[in-house]
């Protein structure tokens, strides 16, 4: 290669050098992207969706979103006229925005974002969709009166923050809860109905809810729609509140489960 390059004219040699440099930089870029795609998953956690670096989901027109909402309402047995009237009113925009504000105050800027509250108060926050085994270990440790932070493995530490003195909105009657509001351990999930990582995380939360006694564990769902990359998230969140208004707590969860299964 060096002999061939030395035989070239200076102009051709210069151009050859530029082409070679571009090829090397391009290859390095491909390797970097591949490593980023596999890194977090290999460590047992998915990157959380966030407004600056999150993965944008395929968007739909307002008409498409309206059809998605009405189809789910029909599927779960809500009164069509009452549901449509509620959705069109926009009456729950403020509640959804309030949830988002509470999440940000607690340190959440991506989804899913979870505040884990134990018998003695907030224990930690979790950013991203971590494995079900992680959550079971943390829940079991808190139920046994242990130090949950000691159970966080090194590869998961970047996703977990100790939260002993966290200022967070406590669970109240406005929340959507699977389990008891008085449960010893509560996972408060701030989520986005269009977030692909949230959809991957939803079955994890469903498994936890079915594994533990409702007096030991409760799943609390709150909204954190990332509207800059997920245009469907806000209307879906507001529609879920209408599902609760018409169908009660069961109506909300039926709506949420249906959206997350899509």
From TrEMBL:
<dbReference type="InterPro" id="IPR013766">
    <property type="entry name" value="Thioredoxin_domain"/>
</dbReference>
<keyword id="KW-0676">Redox-active center</keyword>
<feature type="domain" description="Thioredoxin">
    <location>
        <begin position="157"/>
        <end position="262"/>
    </location>
</feature>
<comment type="similarity">
    <text>Belongs to the thioredoxin family. DsbA subfamily.</text>
</comment>
<feature type="transmembrane region" description="Helical">
    <location>
        <begin position="12"/>
        <end position="34"/>
    </location>
</feature>
<keyword id="KW-1133">Transmembrane helix</keyword>
<dbReference type="InterPro" id="IPR001853">
    <property type="entry name" value="DSBA-like_thioredoxin_dom"/>
</dbReference>
<keyword id="KW-1015">Disulfide bond</keyword>
<keyword id="KW-0560">Oxidoreductase</keyword>
<keyword id="KW-0812">Transmembrane</keyword>
<dbReference type="Pfam" id="PF13462">
    <property type="entry name" value="Thioredoxin_4"/>
</dbReference>
<feature type="region of interest" description="Disordered">
    <location>
        <begin position="39"/>
        <end position="63"/>
    </location>
</feature>
<keyword id="KW-0472">Membrane</keyword>
<keyword id="KW-0732">Signal</keyword>
<protein>
    <recommendedName>
        <fullName>Thioredoxin domain-containing protein</fullName>
    </recommendedName>
</protein>
<dbReference type="InterPro" id="IPR036249">
    <property type="entry name" value="Thioredoxin-like_sf"/>
</dbReference>
<dbReference type="InterPro" id="IPR012336">
    <property type="entry name" value="Thioredoxin-like_fold"/>
</dbReference>
<dbReference type="Pfam" id="PF01323">
    <property type="entry name" value="DSBA"/>
</dbReference>
<dbReference type="GO" id="GO:0016491">
    <property type="term" value="F:oxidoreductase activity"/>
</dbReference>
């Amino acid at each position: 290669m060096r002999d061939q390059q030395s035989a070239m004219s200076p102009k051709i040699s210069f151009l050859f050098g530029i082409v070679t440099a571009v090829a090397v930089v391009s290859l390095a870029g491909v390797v970097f992207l591949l490593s980023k795609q596999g890194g977090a998953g290999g460590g047992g956690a998915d990157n959380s969706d966030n407004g600056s670096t999150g993965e944008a989901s395929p968007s739909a027109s307002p008409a498409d979103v309206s059809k998605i909402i009405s189809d789910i309402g029909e599927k779960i047995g809500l009164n069509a006229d009452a549901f449509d009237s509620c959705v069109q009113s926009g009456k729950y925009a403020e509640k959804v925005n309030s949830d988002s504000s509470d999440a940000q105050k607690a340190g959440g800027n991506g989804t899913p974002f979870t505040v884990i509250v134990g018998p003695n108060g907030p224990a930690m926050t979790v950013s991203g969709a971590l494995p079900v085994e992680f959550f079971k270990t943390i829940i079991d440790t808190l139920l046994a009166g242990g130090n949950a932070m000691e159970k966080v493995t090194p590869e998961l530490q970047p996703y977990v923050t100790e939260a002993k003195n966290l200022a967070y909105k406590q669970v109240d009657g406005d929340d959507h809860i699977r389990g008891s509001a008085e449960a010893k351990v509560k996972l408060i999930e701030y989520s986005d109905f269009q977030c692909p990582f949230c959809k991957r995380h939803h079955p994890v939360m469903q498994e936890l809810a079915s594994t533990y006694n409702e007096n030991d564990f409760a799943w609390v769902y709150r909204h954190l729609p990332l509207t800059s990359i997920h245009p469907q998230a806000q209307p879906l969140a507001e529609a879920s509140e209408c599902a609760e208004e018409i169908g009660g707590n069961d109506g909300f969860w039926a709506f949420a489960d249906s959206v997350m299964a899509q």
